[in-house]
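Blinded run. Sample ID left blank on purpose so nobody reads anything into the name before looking at the predicted structure. Input follows.
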Amino acid sequence: MASAIVKLNIATYSGEEYVIEVPCKKNDVDELIIAKAWKKLKEEEGGSLPYGHRTATIIKRID
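Blinded prediction complete.
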């Protein structure tokens, strides 16, 4: 099983930034990996995230 490292940004007044590693398949599309990263972050943060514009970037895929 492969994994991906994803950088997530939430544009709040303080500028929240997170780096998450998520499991994925080697040929998963970027949108699926990013969705998994947001879901994992939400679970780690206790079920809710701050309001603000959200962006995500896949930094690296690990085979």
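Unblinding after everyone has recorded impressions. Helices lie at 30-44.
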